[in-house]
Design a protein that fits this description.
This protein is mostly helical. It has two domains: 9-194, MFS general substrate transporter like domains (Growth Hormone, Chain: A), CATH 1.20.1250.20; 203-392, Up-down Bundle (Growth Hormone, Chain: A). Helices cover 80% and strands 2% of the residues. The chain is built from 17 helices and two strands. Strands 1-2 form a two-stranded parallel ribbon. The longest helix has 32 residues, at 14-45. This is MFS transporter.
């Protein structure tokens, strides 16, 4: 097995990169499987919509509070160990969820899954930063940031083709275990000692009081609010506006989510070639998402144009996650604080996932679909104002 020192700037280990990205996609599958299984879960456990929503939102709820602690775990135990631990916990929770005989046990399993998801997805970027050469980092982080839309789209497509949610969830357990075995091939760290808890607490405080990481996390919170405000209601929205069957609405929703991958890859390629300023990619994504979102909810447009705008919203919006992931390490107060800065972004992402659907849902319940345009417009405007503040950091500009 290859061994790398923690401070080494290695040639990119593409095999390890593929394994880490696959681990992220598999982790995101566990989010998507809850969405596709929700109707069957409501029947099996006799659940109302509010109770069933916890099957999905428990991941986001945990992420709001545990992003920085997950980053502390990376600094304490190492990126490789934390990633392996995360996959193991994810597998255990998935097995418990698949075999749950009651809704309470299902929620316990989903909570354990959520902890495994956080450990895996916070450790993975830190791990990639160690095993990827500096010249390849922007491209690889663009590739990494596709894990969520890729995993969710795969879950929507594959889950819809299978009968019975338990069988699909057990298949996911096998997939997690396979990924865990492959993850042992990732190069180990050497010459590192875990930080004491007092030092970890100081580092967490430094991260929380550093303007750069906090601003990036706030922008990502608002991006997540925007994205999930639409994505969470896509099957319902497309079914209502395009008058298609639930099955077709689900497939169209998967396509909208999947096209987000293209934006992430495009951002990674542009940043890797140093062709565009990071703040400009933020601004483009936010302007397009805000404008398209307002039109989707507010304008009386033909069904085909509504779907086209959903694709544009998701695809161009994908410029922002890859840019944020590659920028957070550059704005960390010190290189060793990178895992905590990434954990702060995870907390922001999950806060947006919680607030976005709730805010839009309340607006739609109160005044119909057009009312959803207001939270979309406000979130996009606030994110643009924060992006203007980020422009003062040299890392947000093209560096020649």
């Amino acid at each position: 097995m290859a061994v790398l020192s923690e401070g080494q700037s290695p040639a990119t280990d593409w095999r390890a990169v593929a394994i880490v990205v696959a681990a992220g996609v598999v982790a995101a599958l566990q989010v998507g499987k809850g969405i596709i299984a929700l109707p069957a879960l409501r029947v099996d456990f006799t659940l109302g919509l509010e109770a069933a929503g916890w099957v999905i939102s428990v991941f986001a709820f945990l992420g709001v509070f545990l992003g920085i602690p997950a980053g502390m775990a990376v600094n304490r135990f190492g990126d490789r160990f934390t990633c392996l631990l995360g996959l193991a916990v994810l597998g255990l929770g998935s097995l418990m969820s698949a075999l749950a005989a009651s809704f309470a046990l299902l929620l316990v399993g989903r909570t354990i899954e959520g902890i495994g998801f956080l450990l895996t997805t916070v450790a993975a970027p830190a791990l990639l930063r160690r095993i990827v050469a500096a010249a390849d980092r922007d491209f690889v982080f663009g590739l990494w940031s596709t894990y969520m839309p890729a995993g969710m789209a795969l879950a929507l497509i594959c889950g819809a083709a299978l009968s019975g949610w338990r069988g699909f969830w057990l298949a996911n357990v096998g997939l997690i275990l396979l990924t865990l075995l492959l993850a042992f091939l990732i190069p180990r760290e050497t010459s590192r000692t875990g930080q004491p808890l007092a030092a970890l607490a100081r580092d967490a405080w430094t991260t929380l009081t550093s303007a750069g990481p906090v601003l990036i996390a706030l922008v990502f919170t608002l991006y997540s609010l925007l994205y999930f405000a639409l994505a969470s209601f896509l099957p319902i929205l497309l079914g209502a506006r395009m008058l298609v069957s639930p099955g077709l609405a689900g497939l169209l929703s998967a396509l909208v989510i999947a096209v987000n991958i293209l934006g992430n890859l495009a951002a990674g390629a542009l940043l890797g070639r140093n062709l565009v300023a990071r703040w400009l990619l933020f601004a483009i994504a936010l302007v397009v998402m805000g404008s398209a979102g307002i039109a989707i909810f507010l304008a009386p447009l033909p069904p085909f144009l509504i779907f086209l705008l959903c694709l544009v919203f998701s695809g161009v919006g994908g410029l922002l996650p890859a840019t944020a992931m590659t920028t957070a390490p550059l704005l960390a107060a010190e290189p060793r604080l990178t895992p905590m800065s990434l954990g702060l972004i995870v907390q922001g992402s999950n806060l947006g996932q919680v607030v976005g659907p709730v805010t839009v849902g309340a607006a739609v319940d109160a005044a119909g679909w057009p009312a959803a345009a207001w939270p979309v417009a406000i979130a996009a405007l606030l994110a643009l104002l924060l992006t203007a503040l980020l422009r003062r950091f040299p890392a947000m500009h093209v560096l020649r």
